[in-house]
Amino acid sequence: MTTGPNGTDHHGVESNSPSDDDQAEPSAETRRVSLYQLTGTSDLRECVAPKVLEEDNEFEVEFVRVGNRPGLLVHGWSEPEEIGWNSMVHTLTGVDLGYERRVASAAVFVDVDGTIYVVTFNHGWRLIRDSRVNRAFGIDFAVRVVDDDEIQQLTRWALSSKSRVDRNAVPSGQGLWSFGLREHAELVRELVAKARADLPVQLTHLRPKPHRRNPWLRLECRDGLKLPLSVEGTGLVADLREINKVLAEYPVVDALAPLQWVKRVPAGDERREVLELAVAELLAGNGTIGGEVGISYPAKYFEGPDVHCYRGSINGTVIDTDELTLEHISRPLHLAPPQTRLSSLRSGHIDGYDEHGKSSSDGMSALQWIAAEVNLNQGRHILLDGEWFALGEEYVSHVDSVVRKAFASPPPWSLPAWNDAPPNKDGKIHEDDYNKHVANTGKKRFVCMDKKLVTTRAHPRGFEACDLLGPGDSLVHVKRTSSSTGSSPLSHLFAQGLVAAESFTNADTWEKFRQLVAKQNPARAQKMGPRPGSVVFAIHRSDKPLTADSLFTFARSTLVSAWNTLTTYGIPVHVAVIN
After folding, report:
1. 221-239 residue pLDDT tens
2. For residues 106 and 62, is the Cβ–Cβ distance under 8 A?
3. Among residues 66, 79, 288, 521, which one has the fewest Cβ atoms lying within 10 Å of its Cβ?
4. Do residues 275 and 383 touch, judged by C-beta distance below 8 A?
C-alpha cells in the first residue's frame, strides 16, 4: 500500500470532522483558479487521467496535505509541440526555426468531507480522469448564487433537431432573459455572471479588505467553476466547505431553475454505453426496450429547400431513395453486433439533395439522421444530432404544456381537406399539389409561395419563407405526415417556420419577401404590413387524427422552441390540423 503524509493510505481515507487546523484563520489572499468536482470514487488516484499514471510520462504524482485534508498533487510538462508561426517564418524567409513550446501544468486533488475537488493550473484539466468529472457542478452552483440581472456571457445549445450554439456577451452585465434564453430550457454550456450582492457565502474572496470594502464575486461556470479561492491550504478547505454548503442547503433561484432541466451526457459518461445498446435494440425492432427511435433531419437541413432524395452508404449498403425511412437506416445493421451498430452509423454517411441535385452537406454522419428516446432508471434520455441529453421531469412537463397550448390555438380560418386537392398523374397528392389547390380555390386569400426562396447574406442558398401566404400576412407552413415518416418532417416544418420568422425581424429581408410576393400577386404585396402577422403550422396526418397527444416525440421539442421564440418576438403561433 502506498502511504502519504501523516500515514494516510493511498485512498486518502480519514475522519471527515474539521480539525483545529482547519478552523485556523487563513490569509485573505486569493487567486483565480479553475475548480472541478469529481464523482464516483473516494480514491484520489482514481480521479487522475490514466495516461498520467503510466510510467513513461513526465508527470509526477505526490500525496500531500491541503490544510489538514488528504490531497494529491499531479504536475509536470506537456509534450513539446511546434510553435504555430514557424511555418509562416519558413515560407517568408526559407529559414526553419524549429522552435517548440512546453507548458507546465498542475492539478491539486483534495477530499473535503467526502467530496473530491481538483484545482487546476494551466492545462491541469488534462490531468483529470474525464469520466469522473461532474459536468453539472458549475451550473448547479451558479443557479444558487448568480444574480440573474448580472449575466455577462451565455453560451447555449438549443435542444431541438436544429441544434445550434449561440454565444452572447455583454461585459456590463444584463438580465438573463435579455439573451433570448427562453423557458423551454435550452442547454446552457457556459455562464459568466456576478454573484448576488446579498449572498451570505463565507468565501475568502468575499471578506472585506482594507482596499475594497464591498468585494463582489465573478463566476465562470462551465463543467467546473472559475473563481478566486484562497491560496492557503486551510483557507482553500474552508472555501470548498462553503461550496459544499451552498450545493446542499441553498435553494435554486426560480428564474434560473430551467437551466437545470436539460443536461448533456458527456462522451466519457458510463450511461452512454447502455443508451447506445438500447438504441441498437430499438433499431433491430426489439419491442421490449422502453423507448423510441425515428428519422430526424440534421441541423444543416433546416434551412434552404426541401430534400428530394437521399444518397449514402452504411456498412457497405448503398442508400439511394426519394423518401428516407427507418428501414433504410436499420437494414444495413441487422447482421452487425449490437455494440457496433451506432459506431457503424457514425462511420456511415447520408446526404440530402434538393430538386436541382445540390447537397447541403458533404458526408453527413448517418447517426445524425436519427433521433431516439430511451428511458433508464436514471431518467429520460434523447439522442439528437449525434448527442445525448438527459431530460428532467420539469422539462417534459413544460413541453407537454406548451404543445397543448399550441394545439388549442388554431388560426381564425380553416383549410380544405387534403383529399380535396386533385391528385397528380401518379394518383398521389403531394404538398405542392395541395398548396396550389389552396391558392386556386381559397378566394385569393392565399398566395402559393412554395419553393420561392428568399436569399440573404446569412442564407446564401435561400430559405423558404412559407408554403402559403395567408390572411393577415400569416406564414403558413404545410406538411403531410404519418407513422411511416415519423417525426422528421414535422421537426423540419417547425424549424423552417422559426428560421423564416426570425429572419423577417430584419426589415430588408422582409422587403425581399414582399418582392417575391409581388411576382405572384402585386395587389397582395402592396397590402402587406411591416412584419409577419402570425406563423401557422398546417399539418395533415394520413394514418390517424393529429392531436397534441399523437404529435411525435421528437417534433414536440422543436414546436416548443418555435412557439417560445416567436411569441417572444410578438408573432402569434397557430397549429392548423388539415383533415
Report:
1. 888 999 999 999 999 999 9
2. no
3. 288
4. yes
